[in-house]
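User: Okay, second chain of the day. Same drill as before: sequence in, structure tokens out.
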Amino acid sequence: MTDKQPVRIQQVNQSREWFQEALGQLLQQAPYQQITVSALATRAGLSRRTFYRHYETIDQVLTQLIATEVAQLFTTINDAKPRHFQELVYVYFDYWQAHVNFFAEPKR
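Assistant: Same drill. Structure tokens below.
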């Protein structure tokens, strides 16, 4: 087996990460319904062909973006090791306060 397979996996993961980041940025500028594959690919610095190699719809990128954000939230909670419910609530809301742009309305 060659090293090409792990390199390809890294490339796929990097492309998907770039699409997620690009979607997060575009959501700050326009409503979700107005975001196109072309705009997303351009923002990610990739081609439409690359987009369709990894996804069928922008919904899939959004699902991945949300899953990534939730995974980061759980990691933050786990790292904080809250001892009781009140600490858990503080960690939860501190996390989302720091990531408030995730929910922000697009700037017009």
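The chain has a mean pLDDT of 91.

User: Thanks, on to the next one.
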